[in-house]
């Protein structure tokens, strides 16, 4: 499956405005400008293969119920934090949509085996030369 260009439907996203942590002066206790984005993988419009890959990921942002929770608080603007959270969700989904190339097992060539054994015997001769000799 090639990389998908997916954007979530507005009804699939749930936003909660929360207070941002960290310094903020007098404004910090009055304004809720950080965002928690919740996205349910099971009820989403994603392809089944991407859903399965997301659910199998060991990512702390994905709960055991299959809900992606992203916290965005980099900006002082609620709208900018919402856009940042959605962009990070899209990035996460695109990373899950990427199918890694299957590895094909190969055998070492005859020449590489010979070079390896030659290097081992040289190293063995060097170490043998360090041993004390009984005369």
Q: In a few lines, what is going on in this structure?
A:
This protein is α+β, with helices and mostly antiparallel strands and 135 residues long.
Report what the structure shows.
The chain has three helices and three strands; from the N terminus they run E-E-H-E-H-H. It has a three-stranded antiparallel β-sheet with strand order 1-2-3, with helices on one face. The model has no long low-confidence stretch (mean pLDDT 84). Helices cover 37% and strands 14% of the residues. It has a single domain, classed as Double Stranded RNA Binding Domain (2-Layer Sandwich). It is of the alpha+beta class.
Keywords:
single chain, Double Stranded RNA Binding Domain, 3 strands, 37% helix
| Unreliable stretches covering 5 or more consecutive residues | none
Per DSSP, the total helix count is 3
Ends apart, CA distance between termini: 72 Å
Mean pLDDT, all residues: 84
Round the Cα radius of gyration to an integer and report it.
27 Å
Total domains: 1
The profile of the biggest β sheet is: 3 strands, antiparallel
Task: Look at the helices and sheets and give the structural class.
Answer: alpha+beta
What is the string of helix and strand elements? EEHEHH
Neighbour order of strands in the largest sheet: 1-2-3
State the share of residues found in helices, binned by percent: 25-40%
- CATH hierarchy class name: Alpha Beta
CATH architecture: 2-Layer Sandwich
Q: Label the overall shape.
A: elongated
Q: What fraction of the residues are assigned to beta strands by DSSP? A: 5-15%
Count every beta strand, where a strand is a DSSP E run of 2 or more residues.
3
Q: Assign the CATH topology.
A: Double Stranded RNA Binding Domain
